[in-house]
Amino acid sequence: MRAAVLHEIGQDKLEVLDDVEAVGFGPGKVKLRVRATGLCHSDVSAMSGVLPQPAPFIPGHEGAGEVIDVGDGVTGLSQGDRVLVCWLPACGACPSCKRGQTHLCLAGLMNAGTPNFKRPGGDVFGFAGTGTFTEEVVVDAGCAVPIPDDLPYEIAALIGCGVTTGLGAAINTAQVEAGSSVAVIGCGGVGISAVQGARVQGAAQIVAVDPVASRREAALRFGATEAVSPDELADAKQRVTAGEGFDYVFEVVGKSATARTAYETTRRGGTLCVVGAGAMDDFFQVNMFELFFDEKRILPSMYGGGGVLRSYERAIALWRAGRIDLAGLITHRVRLDGINDALDQMRTGEALRTCIEI
């Protein structure tokens, strides 16, 4: 079986090998044939060591395909079913799930420490317990979510992470109000999805912020009312909000420096929503006086901040209704052999989302 493998954390290239085997199939598991997968910035962050992940590993967590086989005890799934990959399935029994915060369930992430692939040289892990840069993968049954026949695999893959994360940040976590002002800092696939979420919610002004001109241009197509470079943000704040600051600011980069900029760009009493996944040693600081005096809400948003299955259904409904554009997020397509080209496209900001067709 072919798969793209990172041998050591810190390497910037993947090696496409044909001696990989998906393992771990048994009760409660399903084996999937991956048809399409998106390249998410979290994959790159895991490769560089920003996000913790044991190696060697197969990146990829934003995938879709069909069920090859179903283990004992699995219900609701059959061979041939079309599914998307949910990298953070809810167990239904932990305290987070019982409180209704299923997006905070850690049961699925615990699988990240158990290898689900092997090579002649030893075990190989799948990123976030999945690993979709491969032809086949074995996952818990909860990771395989059935999708309707009219949903293309490449769009389903994006819903599996980036779209759900960005839309949910605006709709679930921040709960953007109609008529409000919004700034989105970082306009890759997740940031553009946050722009679309703010538009769906009825925001009056949506300012997209990104250093890459092509991404700024894309943000305007997806609903931003204007798009500026980081150096132009202060001027946009003055023009759009008379210097007060935006009602909602979304940080979709995952760095303390941009989170601090986002905080300073948020009005008093406004909402800073932190969407980017950053490093454990990168600390965001506010002083105790401004924290008290400005009364700004700081809301982290994990995987869209709501029930994941409901978020999937909502994204599909909005896509069908033409309220959001998901096909337009896919700016590049490659086969598995072109995975390193896709990595370069992401690192330079050339791509919003690259679809890897398996």
Task: Kindly describe this structure.
- The chain has 358 residues and is an alpha/beta fold.
- It is 28% helix and 26% strand.
- β15 (246-251), α8 and β16 form a beta-alpha-beta unit.
- 51% of the residues are buried.
Reported for the largest beta sheet, the result is: 7 strands, mixed
Order of helices and strands: EEEEHEEEHEEEEHHEHEHEHEHEHEHEHE
Beta strand count: 19
Helix content: 25-40%
Low-confidence stretches: none
Rg (CA only): 20 Å
Q: What would you call the quaternary organization?
A: single chain
Task: Output the number of helix runs.
Answer: 11
Overall average residue pLDDT:
96
Task: Tell me the β content.
Answer: 25-35%
How are the secondary structure elements laid out?
Elements: E1 3-5, E2 15-17, E3 21-22, E4 29-38, H1 41-48, E5 57-58, E6 62-70, E7 82-85, H2 95-98, E8 117-119, E9 122-126, E10 136-140, E11 144-146, H3 153-159, H4 162-173, E12 181-185, H5 189-201, E13 205-209, H6 213-221, E14 226-228, H7 233-241, E15 246-251, H8 256-265, E16 266-274, H9 288-294, E17 297-300, H10 308-320, E18 330-335, H11 339-348, E19 353-357
Parallel strand pairs: 5-9, 12-13, 12-15, 13-14, 15-16, 16-17, 18-19
Antiparallel strand pairs: 1-2, 3-8, 4-6, 4-10, 4-19, 6-7, 7-11, 8-9
